[in-house]
Write a structure and sequence with these properties.
This protein has eleven helices and ten strands. It is of the alpha/beta class. It has two domains: 1-77 and 166-248, Rossmann fold (3-Layer(aba) Sandwich); 88-164, no CATH class. Helix 3 crosses helix 6 (123-133), helix 3 packs parallel to helix 7 and helix 6 packs antiparallel against helix 7 (149-162). The protein starts with a strand and ends with a helix. The structure holds adenosine-5'-triphosphate. Adenosine-5'-triphosphate binds at residues 11, 14, 16, 34, 36-42. Belongs to the ABC transporter superfamily. GO terms for molecular function: ATP binding; ATP hydrolysis activity.
Length: 248
Amino acid sequence: MLEVRGLVKHFGGVRAVDGIDFAIRPGEVFGLIGPNGSGKSTTVNLVCGLYAPTQGQILFQGQDIARVATHKRLSLGLARTFQNIRLFTNLTVWENLWMAENAPAHRAEAGFLKRWVGGRGNARERISQALEFSGLAHRADDLAGSLAFGEQRRLELARALAARPRLLLLDEPAAGMNAEEIAQLDERIRMLQQQGYTILLIEHHMELVMAVTDRICVLNFGRKIAEGTPAQVQADPAVRDAYLGTGA
Ligand SMILES: Nc1ncnc2c1ncn2[C@@H]1O[C@H](COP(=O)(O)OP(=O)(O)OP(=O)(O)O)[C@@H](O)[C@H]1O
């Protein structure tokens, strides 16, 4: 589904990502973890197109997208949520989803009026489903800015889903959430996987990562130090060393 080969990103003298490789299989939940500053966000930004790589390939369904514009990546089926919530706070919940449904990726498919009345494959129906899935149906007409923090995070997820991605990038979705919200997030990630989504999860909350991922890639100082199942990476001395300084 997504393969990263020899990916490098330097910011001046900082080697934020320093030659990493990994491959995500269709239908899996793939975790990307590592201590602060290890290169996770930079990797996600490279994959979704916010940054151009210094070197390396990003293959999405076999096509090298390393130089493809962000909105085109969205149309190919790559959507993300942000670590820092980025919603249109002056629009309603429903309108935020409608904007996503009508992302540049889908604009060419039908005229405005046709889309507005829900002509293109029932956009309204899909928005309803995204609202239902994220537990926000009762807040559809409220301004996004008036939602509680946890609800805004759910709206971020719903918005990414409304773009109908094949690969969903979740950038620290549990940040700032309480235990109950994290349990709900855990459940939602599993449901999305059952529905056929492929997910790249960047997360600091280890319990969540270990519970929902199939495989994990561990970064440290911009390099991959381990890859494997949750059990394998947890038992890896290099990983324990990177996190706790208590390895081999
Ligand atoms: N735009 C930038 N300009 C310069 N340096 C940057 C930039 N973005 C990231 N870096 C540096 O690159 C390195 C990797 O940062 P990155 O944000 O990718 O790490 P991270 O693993 O996502 O960290 P965190 O867990 O704290 O979010 C860090 O040393 C960081 O300071």
